[in-house]
């Protein structure tokens, strides 16, 4: 665990040269999430019933109890491994993938979020040029040939990075606006060395402040199912779970947000929301 001074963290928009680092951070931070989702689906009653039916049929064909049990489970796991990234994309997003190039920032001057801890401490964050990975220059040349339109940028949304002394410590994804006054968090990742240091809270609160200033009145957060840590995190920040902590008298806008669903319609995310 590394002691992190939150007042020295700069939260800025992701640029094209940061894309590969962000992808590596997400892979590290979300390791095991897909496996937990697959286990969640495999243990649902309807899924267990279907597996039992196929096992009974195979029992008559392969004359092996172990193979009759293992083959359907193995095939279903392979199917979910192949299709789940396409169906969930970035968790909470209905799009099959995240448009990293479209969401990258291309202005010369950095676009940053306000860090509330700087006002408390009175310090000014120190920044230096981020480290570049070998071969990143060639990748940048490839991505810059893609056509970026305002429509693509709007649909892609935004990625905000937490940076300290040139190192990227975490990131938060804000999906492109689909409904007026509504913001949507569909990915929050912090580096393994900087967890339980308040970095995730800093990213969420800074983004909330930005959304509030731009006129948003509600923010949604999609949490992978099951993720007790993610649920507790957003509850501490004042979020309420949709469908559990809401009543029939709540406004109709809440009904427009629904969790992402996977195989057999089972939910892959839980939806939390907060009024700004």
Offer a quick outline of the entry.
The protein is an alpha+beta fold and 276 residues long. 41% of the residues lie in helices and 17% in strands.
Layout of SSEs?
Blueprint: E1 10-13, H1 19-29, H2 33-42, H3 45-62, H4 65-88, H5 100-103, E2 112-113, H6 116-121, H7 136-143, H8 150-156, E3 158-164, E4 167-174, E5 182-190, H9 199-213, E6 218-224, H10 228-236, E7 240-241, E8 269-275
Parallel strand pairs: 5-6
Antiparallel strand pairs: 1-2, 1-3, 3-4, 4-5, 6-8, 7-8
Features:
alpha+beta; 8-stranded mixed β-sheet; 10 helices; 8 strands
What would you note in describing this structure?
The protein is 41% helix and 17% strand. Strands 2-1-3-4-5-6-8-7 form an 8-stranded mixed beta sheet. The chain is an alpha+beta fold and 276 residues long. Mean pLDDT is 81; it is low at 132-137. The two termini are 33 Å apart. It has helices spanning 19-29, 33-42, 45-62, 65-88, 100-103, 116-121, 136-143, 150-156, 199-213, 228-236; strands at residues 10-13, 112-113, 158-164, 167-174, 182-190, 218-224, 240-241, 269-275. A hairpin with a 7-residue loop joins strand 4 (167-174) and strand 5.
């Amino acid at each position: 665990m590394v002691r992190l001074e939150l007042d020295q963290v700069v939260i800025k928009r992701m640029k094209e040269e940061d894309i590969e680092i962000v992808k590596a951070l997400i892979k590290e931070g979300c390791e095991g999430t897909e496996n937990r989702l697959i286990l969640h689906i495999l243990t649902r009653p309807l899924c267990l019933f279907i597996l039992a039916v196929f096992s009974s049929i195979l029992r008559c064909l392969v004359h092996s109890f172990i193979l009759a049990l293992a083959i359907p489970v193995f095939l279903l796991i392979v199917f979910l491994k192949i299709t789940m990234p396409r169906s969930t994309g970035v968790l909470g997003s209905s799009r099959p993938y995240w448009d990293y190039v479209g969401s990258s920032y291309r202005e010369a001057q950095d676009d940053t979020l306000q860090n509330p801890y700087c006002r408390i401490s009175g310090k000014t964050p120190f920044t230096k040029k981020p480290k570049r990975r070998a071969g990143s220059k060639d990748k940048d040349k490839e991505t810059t040939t893609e056509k970026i339109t305002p429509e693509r940028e709007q649909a892609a949304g935004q990625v905000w990075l937490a940076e300290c002394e040139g190192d990227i410590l975490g990131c938060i994804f804000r999906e492109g606006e689909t409904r007026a006054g509504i913001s949507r968090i569909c990915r929050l990742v912090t580096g393994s060395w900087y967890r339980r240091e308040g970095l995730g809270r800093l990213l969420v609160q800074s983004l909330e402040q930005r959304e509030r200033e731009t006129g948003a009145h509600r923010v949604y957060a999609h949490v992978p199912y099951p993720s007790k840590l993610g649920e507790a995190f957003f509850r501490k920040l004042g979020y309420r779970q949709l469908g559990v902590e809401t009543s029939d008298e709540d406004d109709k806008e809440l009904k427009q947000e629904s969790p992402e669903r996977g195989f057999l319609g089972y939910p892959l995310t839980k939806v939390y929301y907060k009024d700004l």
